[in-house]
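Q: I'm writing a short explainer about RNA polymerase subunit sigma for a general audience and would like to include a description of its predicted shape. Could you first generate the structure from this sequence?
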Amino acid sequence: MRGRSSVTEPRPATPDHQDLIMACARGEKSALQALYALEAGRMIAVAQRILQRRDWAEDAVHDTFVQIWRKAAQFQPGLGSARGWVYTILRHLSLNMRRDRAQEEAVDPDHLAALAVPALDPAAVFADLAETSALKRCLQALEAPRRDSIILAYAGGFSHGEIAGRLGVPLGTVKAWIRRGLLALRACLA
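A: Of course. Here's the predicted structure. Afterward I'll give you a sentence or two in plain language.
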């Protein structure tokens, strides 16, 4: 039986992070590849802790290496370690990505349908007004598009742009219909 020797075999020397970043600054692609081989696994783990999603973490690591390549010449060894610089870039990109992508998250279609504003039929709202109402009498004197625009705006709470989209007319037309319709209603009700 062979015994183990007390002498350990020397490990192959790994390049220093600072040397690799300086080589990236000189345009040596092999340095970026070496840095990737050295740190990518840990970087994905760090990014995944921040982002809570593996696919986003992979994107963050990719973007970090792009930034390292582009900004390697800006690294200043006197301000901190090269490894710290790499992880600072990763952290900032991950936090920005979490903030930006959280706003883009897709909503479940059922949840979106529950949030949708029910369709408002201006004719039905007009019909529901009391027959003896002065408002109904004055609204009846308006042309249908003006009346519908006013009902959509005040009973439905729609913006001028939303009304224009629903009625398929230009925004300026809707604004004019509402303005002129309200003037006519004010005169009629006075």
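A: For your explainer, you could say: The chain has a mean pLDDT of 83.
Q: Perfect, that's easy to follow.
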